[in-house]
Amino acid sequence: MKLELSSLENAAAALERSVHAANTYDATMPQELKETVRSGIIQNFEVAYELSWKMMKRWIEANISAESVDGVTRRELFRQAAKNRLINDVDLWMGFHAARNETSHTYDNETAEEVSTTARQFVAAAQALLASLRARND
User: Fold this and answer.
1) Is there a domain that residue 1 lies in?
2) Catalytic residue among 58, 105, 134, 136
3) Which CATH number do you get for residue 34?
């Protein structure tokens, strides 16, 4: 079954644009604007991360078996995604998962900065996942 990847493509592109804006204009932005852009990065990360793991799960359900991902932990889902060559590094993805959880429970300046840094790293991982899904989307 072919997966519709446009939602993940759009979310990854939005995150990439947010990070690009921050990287391009960071030195000239007033502090209030930096905080707003950082919030945009975090929000786009949240959406892209959620769509990423859900797309992994859908791919495994459609191409391996629905039972293999029914009720599994996120770590196990990432292990299965790595086993099926959708991702390369389970621990890296668990780090993204931890950062995503931080955005749900705590939101102070230090946490926001940490999650923003992780979100910037997530851009490459999301693009790599998309490339894997496109290559194996039949």
Assistant:
1) no
2) 105
3) 1.20.120.330
